[in-house]
Amino acid sequence: MTFETKNQRWWILAILSLSVFLVVVDNTIVNVALPTFSKHLHASNTSLQWIVDGYSLPFAGLLLAGGGLSDRLGRRRVMQFGLVGFGLFSAFSAWSTSTGELLSARALMGVAAAFIFPPSLSILTVTFKDPSERAKAFGIWGAVSGMAIAFGPLVGGALLTHFWYGSIFLVNIPIVLITLLGGWLIVPESKSPLRRKIDLGGLLLGTMGITALVLAIIEGPTWGWLSTRTLVLFAASFVLLVSFCLVELRRLHPLLDVRVFKNRAFSSGAGAVATAFFCLFGFIFLVTQYFQLVRGYSAFSAGLHTLPFAITTAIISPFGAFLALRIGARAVVAGGLAIMGIALWWQGTQGITTAYFGPIILSMILLAFGFSLINAPSTAAVMGSLSPEQIGAGAAVNNTTRELGGTMGVAIVGSVFTSIFGPQIVNAFRGIPLTSAQLGVAKSSTQAALGTVHALPASMHASLTHAVNLAFMTGYHRGCFAAAMVAGAAAIIIFATFPRHTTGLPDDIEFATNATLS
Q1: Which helix (DSSP H) or strand (DSSP E) does residue 181 occupy?
Q2: Residues 388 and 362 in one domain
C-alpha cells in the first residue's frame, strides 16, 4: 500500500500527531488531579510521585524495545497494537478504587505507550521524503508534542470540574478508536531493511537499573537518604546500568548502541532534551498542586492558569529549528536551557499571594519560551546523526531521553519538595496533641496536612493552615531552585560540547529550511 499524493501524506501526519498527542498528554493530564487522588485515594506525596512516574518509567524503559520491534515487525502494526493496549488500560485506570490499582493500571498504560511513540516518528521520517515537506512535518510533529504537554492540565481540569477523576482516563478511548481507524485506513506499513534480534539482556538490565534508581530517589525522603534500603538501591542501579553499558558494547546488534554517544551532536541533543523535560515535568508536578492547594483554585482553574505556557509553546516551537539555522543549534539550545533556569529561579521566589498577572504568568511564559527553543533543534540533532537503517533506534533514543528526563524530574524535584515539606510540617504541629500515626499522615501530603488541620478546633485553623502553606512554599521554592541549577549547569555543558557549526538539523532539512527562509 503506497500513498503518493501530497494530501495523503498530510493525512498520515494528522494520524501520527494524534497518536503522539494521546501518549504525551497522559504524562501531564494527571498532575491537575493529584489533589483529587490525595483526597479520594488517600495518596501520600510519595504515592503522588509514583502516580506520575508509574506511567513514565515503563514508558521510558521500553521505548528502545518499541523502536526495535516496530522496525522488525512493522511500524504500523506495532503502533496499532500499542493503541489497543493503551485504550484497555485507560479503562482500567478510570475505574481504579485504590492507589495500588491506579499505579498498576498507569504502569500498563506506560508499557502500551512505549509501542506507540517510536513507530510514529519512524513512519513520519519514511513518509516525508521531500526535504521541504519533511521540515514542515518535523515542525508540526514537535509542536503537537509540546502542546500536548502543556494542554494536559487544562484538559484534566475541565474534566474534573464536570466528572469524576476516572474521566481523565476515559477521554483517551475515543481518541484511540479514531487513531486506530485512521491508521488502518491511511497509514502505510513499513519496516527496517535490517533484521535484528531483540536484545532481551540489554532490555532487562537497562529497565531494572533505571527502575532501581527512580525508586531510590522517590522513596529516599520516606526511608531516609542514608537508610540501608536507599543505599542498596542506589548501589544496585549503578551496578545494573554499568553492566548494561558493558553488555551493549559487546552486542553485535545492541538494544542501545552506547557508542553513538561519542557523537557530540547526538549526546548533546539527547542531553538537552532530557534536561528540558526534567525541568518541565518537575515544575508541572509542583505548580498544579500550588494552584489548587495553596491558591485555592479549582482543578479547571488550575489548568486554565497553565494556558499561557501552552500558547507560548505552540507559537515558539516551530521557530526553534529556523533560529538554529540562523545562529547555530549550540547557541539556541544552550540559550533555551539558560532561559529555563532563569524562569525556574524566578518561580522559586514567588510567595503565597504573589500576583498571577505579573511575576507568575511572566515566569511561566519565559519557561515556555526557553523550552520551545530546545526541543526541535535537539531532536533533529539526534535524528540527523544516525544512518537511515537506525531510524527506529534513533526515534526510540530521542523519546527515551524525554521520558527519562521527565521521570527523573518528578522523582528528584518531588523528593526535594518532600524532604523539606515533612520536617516543616512536624515543626508546624509541634505542641499540638497528635498521635504519631496522625502526625505521620499529616506530613505525608499537603492534602493530608490540611485535612488534619480541619479536624482540630476551629481556633487553630487559620494559623495552622498558614503554616501548612508556608511548608508547601518552602518545598516548592527548593524544588524550583534545584531544577534551575540543573538547567543552568546543562546550559554551560551544552554550550561547551555541542558542535559549533551544527544547526541541529539533518542536511536535507537544513537545505529545505534555507529554501523556506529565502
Answers
A1: helix 172-186
A2: yes
